[in-house]
Amino acid sequence: NNNVIFHLRAYPVTASGIVQDKSNNPVSVANVRFTNTSNSSILSAATSSSGNYSISIPRGNYSVTADKPGYLSPPAISVTADSVTIQIPAIILTYDNAVISGKVFNDNNEPVQLANLTASKGTITQQTATDGSGNYSFNLSSGQWTISVSKTGFISPAPKIINLSPGDNLQGQNFTLVPHANQISGIVYKIVTNSQGQTSPV
Question: pTM of the entire structure?
Answer without folding.
Answer: 0.67
